[in-house]
Amino acid sequence: xxxxxxxxxxxxxxxxxxxxxxxxxxxxxxxxxxxxxxxxxxxxxxxxxxxxxxxxxxxxxxxxxxxxxxxxxxxxxxxxxxxxxxxxxxxxxxxxxxxxxxxxxxxxxxxxxxxxxxxxxxxxxxxxxxxxxxxxxxxxxxxxxxxxxxxxxxxxxxxxxxxxxxxxxxxxxxxxxxxxxxxxxxxxxxxxxxxxxxxxxxxxxxxxxxxxxxxxxxxxxxxxxxxxxxxxxxxxxxxxxxxxxxxxxxxxxxxxxxxxxxxxxxxxxxxxxxxxxxxxxxxxxxxxxxxxxxxxxxxxxxxxxxxxxxxxxxxxxxxxxxxxxxxxxxxxxxxxxxxxxxxxxxxxxxxxxxxxxxxxxxxxxxxxxxxxxxxxxxxxxxxxxxxxxxxxxxxxxxxxxxxxxxxxxxxxxxxxxxxxxxxxxxxxxxxxxxxxxxxxxxxxxxxxxxxxxxxxxxxxxxxxxxxxxxxxxxxxxxxxxxxxxxxxxxxxxxxxxxxxxxxxxxxxxxxxxxxxxxxxxxxxxxxxxxxxxxxxxxxxxxxxxxxxxxxxxxxxxxxxxxxxxxxxxxxxxxxxxxxxxxxxxxxxxxxxxxxxxxxxxxxx
Length: 604
Hints:
25 helices, mainly alpha, 6-stranded mixed β-sheet, 5% strand, globular, 8 strands
């Protein structure tokens, strides 16, 4: 239970008491600043507390946004202030300071403006007070009868529920999601909220639906493919609904953040596996295409993540390319066209569903690879142009984020220190990473399976990978270092498995890349939450990208004549990586210290 303290008796005819109780607050009424302090001290330290001016006039949803969002330690709107457990000590200090100020609003008999004064005091004390954008919603403290009448008229003029429904929809979404899903999924979200369902339950339902869809695709029959396509769309509707439910009801949680961050990729990649299994039942081996599509999708996301992290807090962050993009955004239709051509998640899942129901898995994967390759080239080229033309100065935080995304293990650390001590880290990180990938990938593609030259190329890859991270990644194109490492590692596993004489090597490689990709996605969302990368021991245990790459090439060389043993080795490695990263990830995301970070802007 949360407690709301009215800093005085509410005005006659006011619905404020009822509005606060409907939001889950236990309402208490104070008669002055001294009693506010007494009531505040009586609230258990672990509970949320809100202070509300009794003259407040506004929409219930304005109060909901200001007082119940769990993501912010402190939040405020005109006449209303809330503090969660971590901000309670600062609130007590602010109340003492405001009450002790001569002529302050917070006196024993007059508490006019107390909440706003406390919000300013919290800001001054270093506690960031979130102030939600209310838009057309009303939140005001009228000072006389005429102003109160005008405020109530303004409240009546705006439909609180309509605004709440609109705000439940993500602001920047793809064309398909915006026009074909959100117009009705928001009402599903409201239906769920009114029946007490949580976003986590809807997210789980979306996952289960997608897994059933994958199972239907794995049958290899036309009826199964049709059912799979329909269920995949249903899963996507639920995927949109869970976020809309979280925004509608302001039910954010650390567990929800973890589910939201990982289940989209789990659903999509599980469906790829189902399609590959279904094709195999009909004698068509498309595991290489399935793995290729997963690699392309993951590398594309790493490009997005790395670029955004590199420029998250860069100074002088402008370029002619960015200016052109802004001008294009002013022309309405270009916004939708540019969102659609990158094949974001809505368009992509719709295409997968339709093609699954009407064609074959092979066509589905080729359409995915072609479409996503075009989208990746389009976005990456634009970002390279921006990086080369802008005069941005990147921060230490950005360089550290890129180093964490690189996922460099002990071998890269050793070679990096050697390069550093010898003063040989002359090349920019991007150039060293490009050389590393340029040495490894052609060797894997051009040499027979298990050739000793591939192991030599992998050893050189380790050396240049270490050189790439030997100094801070602050160069204009250093954000490409993590994507280059991902492409090199994943492609090596794909090519070696495809050239093995074991028919089950590719499914095992699919499992290995999926486990490693999960680790990399998990790293991204931890960084976004402000907690940094996974613990160093996890990166050491999993070997880092260069250690895993070298290990797979060595296994291919040692087991070149025993394809089944190579498959078994890939399977064992996949299981080991999956167990380690999943256990640590679950421990982190369900811990009380994990941030409730929800993806509000990602469309891919």
